[in-house]
Specification:
Layout: H1 5-22, E1 39-43, E2 49-53, E3 59-63, E4 71-73, E5 79-84, E6 91-97, E7 103-109, E8 119-121, E9 127-130, E10 138-142, E11 147-151, E12 166-168, E13 174-178, E14 181-185, E15 192-197, E16 207-209, E17 215-220, E18 223-228, E19 235-236, E20 238-239, E21 245-249, E22 255-260, E23 274-280, E24 286-287, E25 297-298, E26 313-314, E27 317-320
Parallel strand pairs: 20-24
Antiparallel strand pairs: 1-2, 1-27, 2-3, 4-5, 5-6, 6-7, 8-9, 9-10, 10-11, 12-13, 13-14, 14-15, 16-17, 17-18, 18-19, 21-22, 22-23, 23-25, 23-26
Amino acid sequence: MKLPTKFFTAILVLGALISSCSKKNDGPAGGGYNYGPGNIFIKQGTEGITRINMQNGELSGVIPNWIGAGWDISWDGTKGVKQLNPASYDTRYIIFNTGDGATIKEIFYEPNDNHGGLPYISPDGTKLALQPMLDDGLVILDMNGRVLKNIAGYGNDHDFKYLDPIAWEPGGTILFKKNGSLYRTNTSFTSASKIKDIPFSDWQGYACASPDGKKIALSAGNHIWLMNADGSDFHQVTESNQSEIKPCFSPDSKYIAIAANSRAGVPGSGSTAAHLCLVPADGQVYKVWPGEDNRVIQVQVKGEERSDGLGTTIVGDFVWR
């Protein structure tokens, strides 16, 4: 007996559905612990730097705690930098291997201030940008500690202020705040141009660029906002009755990791800590509280799963590499 074509079509569709439902670790929407590429590196309070493997959810140590403030991880995830509190006038920046924590080299910098600024590794791994201090502006070092630039400000109407946030872009430019607007330097740091006015008084200047160079995200007005790299299409992409902060793009630029869902307003929680979650970087608006939008990923650490559905606790800084 010859079976109709529609029968075979139905079998193929059913098989595809069964196959798709059986997948457990095919990305953030697929369940399990496969949240995406790379690792999220976290500095939690007085702990050292740990990492969440985003393919399997496993947490591991990178380096133990140290006496110092700043740190960063290279864009390729292979190296890190930590800043040591100065024992003398020099500030030491330790470059380490993220695989085994071993020191690769020490960089010495003699600042105009009593210590150097927080370090950020350039996308190509050849420079450190130091966050402005009281007597230093934006400082750019090479990996031997040689000062390439010490920039007081851009224009007659701008001086860098103490701890003004800065952020590298993938092409080697730097994002910063000037007079309530988002600016970027050129690659030689000799000039800067306005990207967009940011219409929020609570915006402190924090911003991050996607690794593909197409998007910029920032936290303002209690939520995450996304724009194109040229400042166009600026709009809100998260919703909640609390606040979302510290956006950081995934290495493939498809997701944004954020600290969200503080339990400060939850009766009996006894906690004000935020929690790690991921939202797609596709420009749509997402409600971030667990259960409100199944496209939002609450990042769970394997073996430390939470019964309340919230992601792992975030009480420090993190980067996704």
